[in-house]
Amino acid sequence: MSRITINGVTVDPLAQADELATHALTNEDAATSDYLLVQTTHPPTAEEKERLAALGVVVHEYVPDDTYLCGYQATDLDAVRALPFVAWADVYFKGFKIGASLRSPQLRSSVAELAKPLDDAGPAPRIVDVVLHDDVDVSTDGLRDRIVAAAGGGDGLRPARGKVRMTVREEDLAALAALDEVKEIEEVPEQVLYNTVSGNLMQAHVSLNGTKFRGEGQIVCVADTGLDKGSTTNVHPAFTNRVKRLVAFGRTSPARTDDPHGHGTHVAGSVLGDGTSASMGGPVTGTAPEARLVLQSLMDENFKLTGIPDNLLDLFEPPFNDDGARIHTNSWGPTVPGLPYNPAAREADQMVWDNKDFVILFAAGNSGEDRDGDGRVNMRSVSAQAGAKNVITVGASEGNRPEISKTYSQLTGGAERWPVPPIHDDRMADNPAGMAAFSSRGPSREGRIKPDLVAPGTAILSARSRLAGDSGNFGTSTDPAYMFDSGTSMATPLVAGCVAVLRETLVKNGTPKPTAALIKAMLINGADELTGQYIPTEAGASPNNNSGFGRVNLQRAVVLPTEAGLAGFVEANALEQGEERAFTLTVPQGVAAHTLKVTLVWTDPPGAALQNDLDLIVRASGQERHGNMGTGPGFDRVNNVEQVNWQAVPSGEVEVVVRAHRITLFAQPYAVAWRIL
């Protein structure tokens, strides 16, 4: 028996058949809806998908477990249910459409939640995204008018590519959910900035035959508060001749991109700043100091991020299409921790799926806290787009500034967030092997390993906007052109700069259009395990939901021509259902035992669950390892990043296999990176 989980509601339709019938949730036919949930006994083969299609069943999306959301304009359910591989089928229940934050807080059975998700709905206004099914356009058949009518008039209705954003009363949500064209209704969270010697810690200095790689030829887009004085010519000295374009999203009348807040300038400096400060010890550089900058200013006149578009495709597509940017970094996210996969996450995944060479980074967030006072940071605080599948989600490890005496308890609200040792009294930047206490932890609400990677995020020195003050909260700078700041906001741009350098090495060595999947696979494969600073460790063996796959080590991520036989990568064509592809490598004989790291990444179609599920299998001397499973026999059915870290791997020939377990709609390309240590 398999359970179906959508928007946090879980039911087993076979085990709970009687309860579903009691609540009038069993339908004899599909006359009331053009959308079905079809649960199968196994991943359907190509022939079985054809049998569904012959009945008019159009698969839209996979939802766990073993279930597909489908379009179906016929009414005969018996024909679908009679297929031998179909375990259960019924119309898409309205109760599945309501996001968890909008539903009744009462503790009730899952079926009762489906039947009446809005028992306590009142007049309170909510800003929501009304997301439409994949085959629906808001401009057709008077749908917009019906949405307005269902919402009692609504307020500020704004169509935005496959959804409508509006303010509605709680009591009108049921009428919106009753519209057959509506797929889900999610509350829109407020978005905030995630700020609360790094290059050496990340081994971010790469060279070949005396030539240094510093991001030359790469264009990075930063979406943040603004840049310095808002000019491409009169710029902070750390950005001289490298600001390609500044774009106003938040302050448009007149257009302004200056940075009186300071966050955006600091973030941009961590990506590609190239400055010098005699009083602060010499060079103050980002990780890609020869890359060029496009900056999207999201901040309004009240320092809020109201410039973020309703649909994030309108944030990502312009720099990709107009500026040639292939890296987009974002140090902001929801105020609420632990939100599920939402429209913003779907839009980020959609962008990378549609544009396979576009790398999107999001900060994991700063919601880490010890709520139960046990001396350990609680899990499950990664939120919304930071939990998306195709982005690189970055958490924060500690920087290496032991001279800064401030402890976590001395940060704003720190005594309440971390009330007991060892975190309470720990200096925030004295141990680069440790996690930053504020860094949001995974897993995502869907169970994915998050963050993907960590980078230093405490007491980071970078450029200071000439229009912004310096609170001095995270360290004292004696140079007014630079300041210290802390947060996953600071860790993320450091990784974005590493992406630029990694991409430069690929382009200059024969891979002119590296995919986001390849970049992510190489970064993750090169990462160093973060050992942690406490006992028991707050990080530890990778992968985990504190530090992900470890701290970025750019030198080990990069594969140079001089490393042939010891490291490599593969960008492979798409696999269909049941297909597999293999390659071999050779582990050399030696006195010391070798470690083999192999990482598989694929850009998955948008959807809360894995739409296409690939398996990584590594075989050596009659032994076998599976991605993310250690020495266990099972397979990961949740993540689109899988790694085998085989210590003391047998010498000789090793076979690396990638197999397609489930392909929902589209054949799946992938990337593999490997290194022998």
Structure write-up:
This protein is of the alpha+beta class. The chain contains 14 helices and 35 strands. Strands 15-20-14-21-23-24-25 form a 7-stranded parallel beta sheet, sandwiched between helices. Strands 4-5-3-6 form a 4-stranded antiparallel beta sheet. The chain has a 4-stranded antiparallel beta sheet with strand order 8-9-7-10. Helix 8 (263-272) runs parallel beside helix 12 (488-508). It is globular.
SSE arrangement:
Layout: E1 4-6, E2 9-11, H1 17-22, E3 35-40, H2 46-54, E4 58-63, E5 67-71, H3 77-81, E6 86-91, H4 110-115, E7 125-132, H5 143-150, E8 155-159, E9 163-169, H6 173-177, E10 182-187, E11 191-193, H7 198-201, E12 206-208, E13 211-213, E14 219-224, E15 243-248, E16 251-252, E17 255-256, H8 263-272, E18 274-277, E19 282-285, E20 292-297, H9 313-323, E21 327-330, E22 332-334, H10 343-354, E23 359-363, E24 392-397, H11 414-417, E25 453-456, E26 460-463, E27 482-485, H12 488-508, H13 516-526, H14 554-557, E28 567-575, E29 580-587, E30 594-601, E31 612-620, E32 623-626, E33 641-649, E34 652-663, E35 668-676
Parallel strand pairs: 14-20, 14-21, 15-20, 21-23, 23-24, 24-25
Antiparallel strand pairs: 1-2, 3-5, 3-6, 4-5, 7-9, 7-10, 8-9, 11-22, 12-13, 16-17, 18-19, 26-27, 28-35, 29-34, 30-33, 30-35, 31-32, 31-34
Task: Summarize the main sheet.
Answer: 7 strands, parallel
Quote the distance from N terminus to C terminus: 43 Å
Point out poorly predicted stretches. Answer: none
Strand order in the largest sheet: 15-20-14-21-23-24-25
SS-based class: alpha+beta
Radius of gyration: 25 Å
- Number of separate strands: 35
Helix count? 14
How much of the sequence lies in strands comes to 25-35%
Shape: globular
Overall average pLDDT: 95
Share of helical residues: 10-25%
